Each structure stands twice: as C-alpha cells, then as structure tokens.
Amino acid sequence: MTLLAVERIKLFTTRSPMWCTVAALAITIGFAAMIAGVDTENLPTIASSQFSYSFGLVVIMVMATLAITTEYRFGTIRATFQAIPNRTATLLAKTTVVAVFAAAVGVLASFGSVAVSKLIQPEADLAINTAFEWRATAGVGLVYAAAAVFALAIGVLVRQSAGAVAIVLIYSQLVESLVALIPNIGTDIQKWMPFYVANKFLTGDPDPTTRAVAEGPPPSAATLSPWWALAYFVAIAVALLAVSLFAANRRDA
C-alpha cells in the first residue's frame, strides 16, 4: 500500500497527467457533442457517441508513457530504486496506479459522451441495455487501462520520452493500419494486431436494432469474440510489461 501511495503522489503532483486527462475528455466528449449537434437528421446512438474514443486513447497512452520516462529523464527513478531496491514491485505499483487512473478517465470519457449526446438531443434513445452497449461504454475503461499498461511498458524499455511516445503513436496509429496493405497476407495479420483486436471488444457483435454498420468506431473484423479479444489485448500488454520488468532489473537505472 505504501508503494501505491507513493506512486499516486508522483502521478498527481505532475502536470502532464492532468493536462492529458483534460485533453482526453475534451476530445472524446467534444467530438460526441459535435456529432450530436451537427447530424440533426439522425438521432445519436450509443455507438455514434463513442466514435472518438480512440482519440482519447492516444492521449492516455502518451500520459502513461510520460509517467515513467520523465522519471528516467530527471533521474528520480534512481532515488526511487535506491529507496526501494525491489524494482519489480516499484514498477508494478506505478503500473497499477496508472492503469486504474486510465480506466477512470476512460469511463468518464465514454459516459460523458453519452450524457452530452443526450443533452443535445434529448429525444435520442441512449439507454444502456444490451451487452454491446455496455461494452461500448463501460468497456472503454478496460481498454484504456490495458493500453496504459502497454504504453508504460514501452516507456520502461525505451526510457526516453520522445522515442517512447513516437513508438506508441506510430505503432497504434499507423503500423496496424498499414499492415493491411501487405499483399495476400496483410488482412490476416491485421486481425491479430493488439489494438485492432481490442477494437473488436468495443465494436464486435453489435445489436442490429441500435447500430448501423457505418455508425460509431469502424467495426473490427478480428477473429476472436469480444471478450476473448479483450483477454488477448490484456495478455499482450501484460507480456510486454513482463519483458520491460526483466529489462529494468537487468540494466542500470
């Protein structure tokens, strides 16, 4: 509990997490408001309200990366490891705090998007009843948490803010999309890429009475079912974290 308290204090006494939180909420909720306000011919749905969840996800991943790379940049990680020689426990505590915080931001962003859509178009039916609707809203927090673990692990491996952020952004926003362009095998490979699979959890098996194919985030064609897709994404994040913990214990701070 002491380690968790220490990492919580570290996280909330720096500016970057707060600014990233504001940016993530503003982007996701702001886009939901814009969609509900501009498209007056169609009533917003749960799916359309979550259209911009991936924009906020990018910001949260940057926050998670900076949570560890700034410690390496300013050398505070050395003092931490000297005070607490168990590096694995220290980094796991930081990961837990960052993941929980990311999950909270994700839930605020998703339900805030639903609320603002309902506020702008009160006649819209935005009740959360089906399994798809619950995954599309509450599930955003789970995806944000796993993505934060993924990004923090990259930060531990790279240790430099610019390089780690660049890797996280390029991979999540470009690599997985460009893989599909590989002739013959590209689409098959993409179906197993982590973030593409994670999107299946949020968009897979929609309720046809509340979601047209073109509404909301682009549906994922990943092979796994929604909950197995989430498990796969979490497993990738945890595996990457395990590699980063091994590396952190093998080299100098």
UniProtKB/TrEMBL annotation:
Keyword Zinc-finger listed: no
PANTHER family in the record: INTEGRAL MEMBRANE PROTEIN-RELATED, MEMBRANE PROTEIN
Protein name: ABC transporter permease
Keywords: Membrane, Transmembrane, Transmembrane helix
Presence of the UniProt keyword Membrane in the record: yes
Transmembrane parts of this sequence: 18-38, 50-70, 91-116, 136-158, 165-186, 227-248
Domain of life, per lineage: Bacteria
